[in-house]
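F.,

This is the one I mentioned.
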């Protein structure tokens, strides 16, 4: 006589369920809304009011074409910090260990979290871009360019979430995430989103071009202006593949270690 094993669902279906659970939690969390949407939108409007005319006078291009991409990327990154506090609660309450013991695909909780991060970043990018359009942003090549424009921040947001997950799964306090936040904020504001790289001092130009945020912002700017984007796209993909290769295994191993605690 053999005992029947509980049936497992598909990885995709289970991941969608876990993602939906997190999206519902974050929807009721004001901190996620503030850091993912309100704060980046505030930055967009503030920079537009303070620097808009100066950038047009110097470059001949509206500052929105750099600000909206920068703030969309920032929304994905800042939102990841706000969403990370649920990881600590799930560890302390033993929820990760329960998920590990359930007859489900063990990758589905982590995949669901990354999927939820993608949804969160996409929605925040839509809202920030809508504000940008209201302020004067236009897609010169047509509205089909909006699709890759909105997807680019999602890729950055998911990769950055891997770093946040890898740290949050191993740390019992938020101090480690604070150390990650400092260079992350610096990377956003030292990108090509606000001042064009060619207008900065010569010693700063290499730093901006080596910034992993810069090619993504340049790619999004090129899409809106209907300019060539192949070069920035290739550099963005190179950064994305390299960072995923490093951060992906760290996030997986961190989740596995945290889930086994108490098991």
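My design for it:
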């Amino acid at each position: 006589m053999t005992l029947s094993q509980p049936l497992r669902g598909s990885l995709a279906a289970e991941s969608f369920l876990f993602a939906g659970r997190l999206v519902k939690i974050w929807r009721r969390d004001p901190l996620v809304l503030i850091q993912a949407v309100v704060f980046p939108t505030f930055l967009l409007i503030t920079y537009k009011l303070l620097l808009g005319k100066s950038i047009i006078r110097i470059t001949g291009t509206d500052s929105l074409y750099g600000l909206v991409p920068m703030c969309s990327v920032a929304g994905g990154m800042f939102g990841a910090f706000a969403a990370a506090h649920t990881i600590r609660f799930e560890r302390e309450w033993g929820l990760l260990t329960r998920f590990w013991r359930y007859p489900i695909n063990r990758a589905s909780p982590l995949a669901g979290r990354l999927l939820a991060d993608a949804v969160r970043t996409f929605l925040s990018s839509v809202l920030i871009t809508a504000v940008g359009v209201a302020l004067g942003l236009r897609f010169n090549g047509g509205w089909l360019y909006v699709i890759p424009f909105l997807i680019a921040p999602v890729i950055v947001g998911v990769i950055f979430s891997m770093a946040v997950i890898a740290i949050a799964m191993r740390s019992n306090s938020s101090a480690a995430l604070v150390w990650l936040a400092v260079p992350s904020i610096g990377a956003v504001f030292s990108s090509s989103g606000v001042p064009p790289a060619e207008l900065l001092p010569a010693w700063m130009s290499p730093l901006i071009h080596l910034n992993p945020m810069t090619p993504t912002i340049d790619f999004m700017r090129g899409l809106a202006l209907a300019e060539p984007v192949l070069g920035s796209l290739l550099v963005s993909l190179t950064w994305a593949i390299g960072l995923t290769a490093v951060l992906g295994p760290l996030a997986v191993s961190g989740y596995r270690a945290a889930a086994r605690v108490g098991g």
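Residues 15 and 108 are 5 Å apart (CA to CA).

Talk soon.
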